[in-house]
Amino acid sequence: MKIISWNIDSLNAALTGTSARAELSRAVINTIIEHDPEVIALQETKLPSSGPTKKHLEILKDKFPDYEIVWNSSVEPARKGYAGTMFLYKNNLRPVVTYPKIGAPGTMDCEGRIITLEFDEFYLTQVYTPNAGEGLNRLEDRQIWDMKYADYLEKLDKEKYVIAVGDFNVAHKEIDLAHPDSNRNSAGFTDEEREGFTNLLNRGFTDTFRYIHGDVTGVYTWWAQRARTSKINNSGWRIDYCLVSDRIADKVGKSEMIDSGPRQDHTPILVEINLEL
Hints:
The protein is α+β, with helices and mostly antiparallel strands. The chain has one domain: Deoxyribonuclease I, Chain A, CATH 3.60.10.10. The protein is 26% helix and 26% strand. It is built from six helices and 15 strands.
């Protein structure tokens, strides 16, 4: 089974935008299509509470004619057009789709951050983890989220194998970002967030990229848009992951990044795992 996960940073912009960045985003979409994955997970769709528009669905159906589409959007009292997730999966698949709430603080459970697909033998779930925010103003809530999310995955893992993909918004170790010393206590690289991710792994999960590639350095999934040369200089962070239940780590054949060309922000991750759908 081949899975691709990507923080798209606005589905509307990627599908209908006219900017140079929108063109770069569409090039990434075309690359994803060429890989022909069974499942595509998208984060930060930024759709309205009603979900994709008729125009969005027409474009998606044209580009992905063999896929079913499900989504989870931010709804009141959360911000409009914020966060959000979407799955596209091959239409021969028949997963049970759920939109979990994990008891997260504030409006986090209303921000469309998790979708789970249940198959006969395993769960495939995606997440868009909340950012700790400007000035770490959301760090305490983020710590609670991390615990609640770890509880949720552990519960799933007691029932079936788990595959969890998405934007986890944390660089776990110093080798997961280009400049750890200058980014200590920045959102995504605080001790608290790193400990939260360690706790998640200790619940029985494997970081598939590290499982396959060991302590390789210089391989990232995100480059800041605000710094024009961040990608040219490879000043990146690895904050997008595929985690699997420890007991199926040996079934992972590939876990890598897809080249998104000159486009900054997130690049897609690709995972191949030997599980029967």
